Amino acid sequence: SITQQTGSVPGDTVESRDTFASEHRFYVGAMYDLSMWQDYKDDAQLASGRNASGFDALVGFRLYDVFRIEADYMYSQAKWNIMSMNTNTVFVNAIFDARIDSLYRLFYKQKLVPYVGVGTGLTWYRGKDMTFKNDTNLSLAALAGLGIELGEYFALDIGYRYVYMFKPEISVMSELVPSAHQVRFGARVNF
């Protein structure tokens, strides 16, 4: 193996600073989501958004210490005071981690890793006593959070996600554009 002096700290070499991404390329995880669905109003009706629970299952790949891509399946029940529907969404997320311990020697091991990201995907809708003109639609997401690393292989996640689903043209509310603020809690296992 080739050892190269980095120049930042005497004795610090590229070989001695193995990055987290090179040691743990893949991860799997699960999240609990509390979705706060936004209100809808038109000339004829007002639909008040309700809170609903959901979950995510995700698989990720770290390209670098500061960048990862993940496939994310989200199930949620979208609720308003006059109706509810089930949503199944598959996202591809691009996430930037603020992992600075491999860039600078400030920490021996970084335990708190903030992150931000964006995602795009498809949502499938299903509801009782309603029809959808577009039962599969494009969806967008913006997310931010904090990973709490409990050792090399396990991390807890606390985060926020804004989800925007393009208009499905539902028979009972044709102009509704489903969107929600989500508070998320979960865990990841690194491989």
List strands and helices in order, with pairings.
Blueprint (H helix, E strand, L loop, with lengths): L19 H4 L2 E12 L2 E2 L4 E2 L3 E14 L2 E14 L2 E15 L14 E15 L9 E14 L4 E12 L13 E12 L1
Antiparallel strand pairs: 1-4, 1-10, 2-3, 4-5, 5-6, 6-7, 7-8, 8-9, 9-10
| Beta-strand content | over 45%
Main sheet: strands, sense, barrel: 8 strands, antiparallel, barrel
Helical run tally: 1
Low-confidence stretches: 1-17
Please give the radius of gyration in angstroms.
Answer: 21 Å
H/E series: HEEEEEEEEEE
Tell me the helix content. under 10%
Structural class: mainly beta
- Shape summary: elongated
Number of strands: 10
Average per-residue pLDDT, rounded, comes to 87
Main sheet: strand order: 1-4-5-6-7-8-9-10
Distance between the termini: 23 Å
